[in-house]
UniProtKB/TrEMBL annotation:
It comes from the Bacteria. Pfam families: DUF3485 (PF11984), Exosortase_EpsH (PF09721). The chain crosses the membrane at residues 22-40, 52-69, 81-98, 110-126, 193-213, 220-240, 260-281, 302-322. The gene is xrtA. This is Exosortase A. InterPro entries: EpsH-like, Exo/Archaeosortase_dom, Exosortase, Exosortase-1, Methanolan_biosynth_EpsI. Keywords: Cell membrane, Hydrolase, Membrane, Protease, Transmembrane, Transmembrane helix. The lineage of its organism: Bacteria, Pseudomonadati, Pseudomonadota, Alphaproteobacteria, Sphingomonadales. The keyword Ligase does not apply. The keyword Ribosomal protein does not apply. Its main location: membrane. NCBIfam families: 8TM_EpsH, EpsI_fam, exo_archaeo, exosort_XrtA. It is found in: Cell membrane.
Length: 513
């Protein structure tokens, strides 16, 4: 005789494994977004106001669509809590803490994403997470990144323009990212670097490669082709604007470029890239995203406890507590009055630049700017910026901080020869007027011109203690009548002596108060 056990359907409202784990995941997601709400709001604000990351909401929609397409396959799997997934939550929490201490917003944003991904892995288990592997990885495109590519892309675009102008026989002269032709004076500005086009194309190419190809080599080739096409196409677009202005007028070319680039250019290049890749597609639209049979675990999942959710809560609390603790340490008050130093061989003079220029350092406690003139009549400008403590939006290194401030009328031109422990660059303002600027940063006993080194020193002093006083010293001069400003700057630096002597004296005054 064979006995059969009756099969009863789960009563309505019963906590099936999927219901239970999704409830826990929803709760964990809400806790993460609330606890780190400042960073979530920052990301959303960047999506809203930045043209570079305007595609990110579409990425979020695509992730939802990718998960929805997998719903029937996922239903064949059984979700469960999985303790090893807590490693990803911990990585995110640790990355967020490092970003918070160093003042690196991208690290905090990436840490937030890792915590959300870790919650999915921890609360849905290995089999479900493998089924969601691509949507989870594709979520990296939700983090605003890539703006550090702007300067090299500006330079590359300018060089492509010069090569193409040479091919059509249009004489031109290049100075960094500025191009002069018989028609006019053109700047390959940040908006012309093509970084927004490049990042959006990269996101599209990765998605298309996943959906349309099986072969890993074809996927890689398609992504590389799409990215290269976007860079080359942007160079052609910038050249076309200059050439059209030569044939018509600058105003007409500027209007044409705005309309064409804003509405049609990206769509045309996107269509061409897709058309070229079409013949190599080797994945059918009906192919399943994954094979559930290969992901089903041999052993039945054990009953879920609250240990993993509780561990997630503890991991989330740790960086917030540590951040609050270190935020209250190391603050030092600066003197109320700070003066520019006397420099042997140089006299103070009225500040009378050809074009007004002031370095931009938001949130600084002191900003000093003065002009010095030597016996030769050469003028050099010295700026000293002081922070008693670096906070969010008020730090040495950040967006818009430095020699070129947002909406200042000045634009970065090119790198220059770096001095020891410093960084040199050329900037151009209305006129046009070109100015060379040498920058030094002083923090934690280190003098450097490296933004990365500043962030590492900030991280070290914030995590392990030490003086929070930070300073920037900028020495600059205008190029007049085609003469390089660098010889005057170098003489001034030699007479000024080590920049740390100036900044450390101010720090010593602060501690002696």
């Amino acid at each position: 005789m064979t006995a059969y056990a009756p099969i009863h359907a789960a009563p309505d409202g019963a906590l099936t494994p999927w219901r239970r784990q999704l409830l826990l995941l929803g709760l964990a997601t809400a806790v993460i977004l609330i606890a780190f709400g400042r960073d979530a709001a920052d990301i959303a604000d960047i999506w809203w106001r930045s043209d570079t990351f305007g595609h990110c909401p579409i990425v979020a929609v695509m992730i939802g669509w990718l998960v929805w397409q997998r719903r029937a396959l996922l239903a064949e799997l059984t979700p469960r809590s999985w303790a090893p997934g807590l490693l990803l939550v911990g990585m995110g929490a640790g990355g967020w803490l490092l970003g918070d201490a160093a003042g690196v917003a991208q690290a905090r944003h990436l840490g937030l994403l890792f915590m959300l991904q870790g919650a999915v892995v921890s609360l849905l288990g290995p089999s479900v997470s493998r089924g969601l592997l691509f949507p989870l990885g594709y979520a990296l495109f939700l983090v605003p990144f890539g703006e550090e590519l702007v300067p090299p892309l500006q330079t590359l675009t300018a060089k492509m323009c010069m090569a193409l102008l040479g091919l059509v026989g249009l004489p031109a002269h290049i100075d960094g990212v500025f191009i002069t032709t018989p028609t006019g004076y053109f700047e390959v500005a940040e908006a012309c670097s093509g970084v927004n086009f490049l990042i959006a194309m990269f996101a599209y190419a990765v998605l298309a490669a996943h959906l349309c190809f099986r072969s890993t080599s074809r996927r890689i080739a398609f992504v590389l082709f799409a990215v290269t096409s976007s860079v080359v196409a942007n160079g052609v677009r910038a050249w076309g604007t200059i050439y059209i202005s030569h044939l018509t007028s600058i105003d007409f070319a500027a209007g044409f470029d705005h309309v064409f680039y804003g509405w049609f250019f990206f769509a045309i290049v996107l269509a061409l890239v897709t058309a070229v890749g079409w013949r190599f597609f080797d994945r059918s639209i009906d192919d399943p995203a994954f094979d559930p049979a290969r992901l089903i675990e041999d052993a039945p999942p054990r009953a879920t406890s609250l240990v993993v959710p509780a561990a997630i809560a503890a991991i989330l609390a740790a960086p917030l507590i540590w951040s609050a603790a270190i935020a209250a340490t190391g603050r030092e008050a600066l003197p109320n009055v700070v003066q520019l130093p006397a420099v042997k061989g140089w006299q103070r003079a009225p500040y009378a630049p050809l074009t007004p220029w002031t370095p931009h350092f938001a949130g600084a406690d002191h900003r000093l700017l003065g002009r010095y003139v030597d016996a030769r009549g050469d003028a050099v400008d010295l700026a000293i910026i002081l922070y008693g403590h670096q906070d969010e939006g008020g730090e040495l290194i950040g967006y818009g901080q430095g020699a070129v401030g947002p909406e200042s009328g000045w634009a970065w031109t090119t790198r220059a020869r770096n001095p020891a422990d410093g960084m040199a660059e050329r900037i151009t303002g209305p006129g046009p007027v070109t100015r060379e600027v040498v920058s030094f940063y002083r923090l934690g006993g280190t003098t450097t011109g490296s933004a990365m080194r500043v962030k590492l020193e900030t991280l070290k002093t914030r995590l392990f203690g030490g003086s929070q006083i930070a300073a920037a010293v900028l020495v600059s001069a205008e190029e007049r009548q085609g003469r390089s400003a660098r010889p005057a700057i170098d003489r001034f630096l030699a007479d000024l002596g080590p920049v740390e002597r100036v900044t450390d004296a101010l720090a010593a005054d602060a501690r002696g108060r």
